[in-house]
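pipeline stage [seq->struct] | target=Diguanylate cyclase/phosphodiesterase | organism=Paraburkholderia xenovorans | residues=463
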Amino acid sequence: MPHDEAALPVRHGSNPVQPNAVHHSGYALVLDSLTRLHNRVYIAECLQQLLKSPRAARVGVLFIDLDGFSKINDIGGYDLGDSILRDAASRLAGLMDQQGLLGRIGSDGFLIVADDHGNPLTLVAFAQRILDLFAVPFEVAGAEYYLGVSIGMARSVHDTRDASALIRDAGSAMRRAKQSGRAEFFNKDMQDQLQRRFRIETLLRHARAAGELKLVYQPIVDSASGETVGAEALLRWTSGELGDVAPAEFIPVAEEAGLMESIGDWVLEQACAQAGQWRWSFAPHVAVSVNISPLQFNEHLVRHVAACLERSGLDASALQLEITERGLMPDEPAVSATVAALVKLGVRLSIDDFGTGYASLSYLKRFALHNLKIDRSFIQSLPHDRESVAITHAVVTMAHALGMTATAEGVETREQATALFEMGCDMLQGYLFSRPASPAEFADALSDADLGNKWCAVPQSNP
Ligand SMILES: [Mg+2]
């Protein structure tokens, strides 16, 4: 499973299925003697501990049961059954990385406790890998035995704090899976989500050609003057079949399905052309910000940015690329090379959602970046929440000390804007000024200087 630094603790047994695994009296209490996996009592105990920890909301449980196992014992006796169970355990152990727990929980039942990263689809994807694994027949003494599996899943949403309840839920989902056929192995909600995910993937492949994608632009204003100095281009998708699909839903699908590069190329192309046109016709000072997925962050991006600038006639300095902290980690030479090449082109680089990603700041020192975009979660609790004030202030100060500018996103009230101005935050973005607007609306607002009139840091007598 994918993992990050905040994943579940390592509790996976030491190569549990190896026949020669260490086995002294202490292990007998926690290991299943046949498969050397954790036993039911131990795995339930660990699960109980996890459910009491701060990570409880990310815990997922998969209950895996072999289909038709009872027949195996009838056909070949317990020796055959035992070989197959050991092989099944070994296959599952091969899927586990350093996180999560695997155990045997009944005669032919296995339990996996995994970090679902707050997303049920993580579990669904994991379950799919298990199904694929059991599509391969078991081979014992030259004969092949096909045994599928049924999988039930449960997550610790709704504040589940009871390990046995969670295991029971996963077990009943597994029994439903048995009844309805092997493919429908999870509960209705998860199944609906998976079906929707696949539908999104299919439709998204044609969305660009069908003209269903568009960009909207959210103004970015100067914190002192209220003048609109730029706009963030935001991707929107209105599917003919599904209606409006939120970027938070379709972007991860695009990333997983390998569609991000082509969609990202289109976004850059459109945004540069649009900004080029605005600057040429009536707003020579306006810059455009474009969000870049970590998956786009490579050599191709550099070439494409250069091509878009060339075609649109847009000044490189009027293009800002927003990258999340996730995109700048870890220490990959390719990342440094991409940053260096983009800086050489003259485009501005901004860290998006600053403060929510990796806590390492070393990349700020290493890379020549231009702007920090402070995450909305800090802005929203301004100006009354002391911690948010402290963090925001520190980020602005740090940005300036490093020769960077700071932008606050999610600004909704005048109080927030005033506090940010007083902290020295350079630019502001949010509903206080404007919702994301169509290109025509944005152009209107720019030429009327409407947005600027809504905000001026100098206190007005009649606000
Ligand atoms: Mg952004």
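stage status: PASS
auto-comment: The pocket of magnesium ion is lined by residues 232, 291, 322, 352 (CB under 6 Å). The radius of gyration is 27 Å.
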